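A.,

Following up on our hallway conversation. Structure tokens first:
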């Protein structure tokens, strides 16, 4: 029963991670797989492997509603922007200096956190060297290895790994491995103090502490490189906070393919939003009224004296369609020069309904997730009936 509950917990956790942040999933999945491959007990290894692999399959299915369209519609956005400038992985290794817009205080903060977490993990491992229980010792060693590997992945020494596995480059920022480093460091620390009464801390030579001093020396070296100012972020006043909140920097890879590169920038997008009317027309005598404006539906009433070309202040994306007066025939919707929705309206007064329809990729993801959800439900019912029946027999 415990294995089944663990399987459901892993399924839900992995599915939520996939729905939250795919780059973090790329980092974490090898850690998850390695954990049950290297730390599972030999007697229950087959059962554990089966339940974990089932959890991976079901979690992939449950989260398909998100990752299938995310992976299959990348040609509609600017994914190539992830591999240039400040978003390119080789420009974001620690101890190499901030570049392409990153502040020095931000860089020092990342370096401080990385070295601190690594030192915490290593120090906790030193504290637990005399751990008597083999299972706990194996767990601690595994998570220490993960912590050290995560630590190395944030520095240029790991660049050859990033080149060997191009999928890692989609993570963009090597310091995102701090997510795994934090998990590993906390796990090592928790396991190290889990049986505090049985641990007698002894020194085995000076080599472990020499390594520890090297880690701390890297922290001090980073301060010498980047200056003597505070390693944490400088506080900003309320006016600057409000300014940053009005227009935040949108990741350049989110730019729809049809929107000009020079328009989709932190400085230009604010003025573009302010200066562009909600509805524009090539005819000055055209009139319109907005009935409602929602994320996937825009309703307009248009009165045009002649054939008019309307432009709606909404970025174009495949799936947008327009209907005229509720008729089944749809008006062609195309991107304007600025990447906005554009369509022609015949003369007269008309009701226009713009709708962002569900793409085939989205439908595929929804179907896969529905099937995975049904499988989870059926497996849950099956296990409930099986264990409920077995439990009743044992009681009798």
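Then the amino acids I'd put at each of the 396 positions:
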């Amino acid at each position: 029963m415990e294995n089944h509950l663990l399987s459901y917990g892993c399924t839900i956790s992995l599915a939520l991670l996939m729905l939250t942040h795919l780059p973090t999933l790329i980092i974490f999945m090898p850690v998850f797989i390695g954990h049950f491959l290297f730390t599972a007990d030999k007697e229950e290894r087959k059962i554990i492997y089966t339940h974990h692999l089932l959890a991976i399959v079901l979690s992939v299915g449950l989260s398909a509603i998100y990752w299938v369209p995310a992976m299959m519609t990348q040609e509609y956005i600017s994914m190539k922007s992830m591999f240039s400038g400040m978003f390119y992985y080789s420009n974001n290794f620690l101890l190499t200096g901030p570049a392409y817009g990153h502040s020095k205080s931000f860089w020092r903060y990342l370096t401080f956190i990385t070295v601190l977490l690594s030192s915490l993990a290593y120090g906790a491992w030193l504290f637990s060297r005399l751990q008597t229980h083999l299972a706990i010792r194996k767990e601690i060693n595994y998570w220490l290895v993960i912590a050290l590997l995560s630590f190395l992945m944030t520095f240029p020494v790991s660049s050859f790994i990033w080149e060997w596995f191009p999928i890692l480059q989609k993570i963009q920022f090597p310091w995102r491995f701090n997510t795994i480093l934090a998990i590993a460091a906390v796990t090592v620390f928790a396991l190290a103090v889990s049986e505090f009464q049985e641990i007698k801390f002894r020194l085995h030579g000076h080599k472990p502490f020499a390594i520890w001093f090297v880690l701390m020396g890297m922290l001090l070296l980073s301060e010498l490189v980047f200056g003597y100012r505070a390693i944490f972020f400088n506080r900003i006043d309320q006016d600057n906070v409000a300014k940053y909140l009005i227009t935040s920097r949108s990741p350049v890879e989110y730019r729809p393919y049809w929107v000009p590169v020079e328009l989709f920038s932190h400085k230009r997008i604010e003025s573009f939003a302010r200066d562009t009317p909600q509805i524009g027309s090539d005819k000055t005598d055209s009139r319109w009224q907005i009935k409602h404006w929602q994320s996937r539906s825009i309703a307009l009433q248009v009165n045009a004296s002649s054939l008019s070309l309307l432009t709606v202040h909404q970025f174009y994306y495949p799936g947008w369609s327009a209907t005229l007066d509720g008729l089944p025939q749809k008006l062609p919707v195309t991107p304007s020069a600025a990447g906005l929705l554009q369509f022609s309206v015949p003369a007269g007064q008309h009701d226009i309904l713009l709708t962002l329809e569900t793409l085939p990729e989205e439908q595929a993801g929804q179907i896969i997730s529905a099937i995975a959800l049904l499988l989870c439900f059926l497996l849950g019912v099956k296990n409930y009936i099986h264990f409920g029946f077995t439990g009743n027999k044992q009681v009798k």
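The mean pLDDT is 81. Curious whether your intuition agrees with the design.

B.
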